[in-house]
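In the laboratory, one determines a bound structure by crystallizing the protein with its ligand and collecting diffraction data. In a computational setting the workflow is compressed into a single prediction: the sequence and the ligand go in, and a structural description comes out. We illustrate the idea with N-carbamoyl-L-aspartate.
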Amino acid sequence: MKTSAELQLDDDGRLRHLLTTEGMSRELLTEILDTAAQFAPVAGAPVKKVPLLRGRTVLNLFFEASTRTRTTFELAATRLSADVLNIDAQTSSTSKGETLFDMQRTLEAMQVDMFVIRHGSSGAAHFFAQHAAPGVSVLNAGDGRHAHPTQALLDMYTLRCHRPDISQLCVAIVGDLMHSRVARSDIHALRALGAREIRVIAPRTLMPSGIETLGVIPYTDMDRGLDGVDVVMLLRLQRERMRGSLLASPGEFHRAFGLTERRLAQLGSEALVMHPGPINRGVELAGDIAYSPQSLILQQVEHGIAIRMAVMAMIIGRGPTA
Ligand code: NCD
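The predicted complex, in structure-token form:
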């Protein structure tokens, strides 16, 4: 069986689906970031539209809650002139017992060109890609704890805007490593771009065993882990994925692992703060830090549009009718 990394490329090594950043080459990753840079000015143009995907249909299929990912995928598709349908999976026919396989066949019968799927099960996007009809592409908007490739790509894009040479950077990813698809996708992307050092900081209960095999250095002490880092990527505590009590309390987590004003001051004014959102104020970070000059959080949201336009354009903008 093909891995996600193999399945997402066509025979010429070009993107056919986007499932994961794992195994993605530095060249392909850089090509996506460079393409996003070309699309970024569309957001500031008087007419925020280019005709690249005119006549194409993109279907957003979200089985889990989302604000920024769903909206920016929709904006990206509409700014490329595609027709976009949003299916709220809570009210879709899977709630009547239809399987994912049958739902996909049904939607393909409507001549959809691209599925954007978010699902609580790891592997859902891979499953869709495996069964996709010829010419139909699948974009993973987050599958369980597995991967969230467009988030990692927009994180790399945002980072590169401020620190063009990622190979110089020491980056710490902090918080709920156990349940975070964002962390996994960021680690693969940072490694592909050659980041100097990647640290992961979490309480023992939220640190996956064997995580060092991904090429990261684990810390269970926040102050030691933050010492000398250039970038702090914070993660939300994903309580919806936690079984049993893995944490004492949000307040205790904040004292031990939260980014407080004191910890930020110790990092120095050059350090950058990132978070995929949604943020939980007073848990992963002290409230005022989110909108401080060192925070890139809103830029991450903004860049999500250009990244998603780039990926869609690279995948279906070059088809026979492009
Ligand atoms: C993340 C997700 O859904 O994986 N959010 C996002 O897409 N911006 C992280 C999270 O929910 O905490």
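Residues 68-69, 142, 148, 151, 181-182, 236, 238, 276-277 surround N-carbamoyl-L-aspartate (CB under 6 Å). Keep in mind that any predicted model is a hypothesis to be tested, not a measurement.
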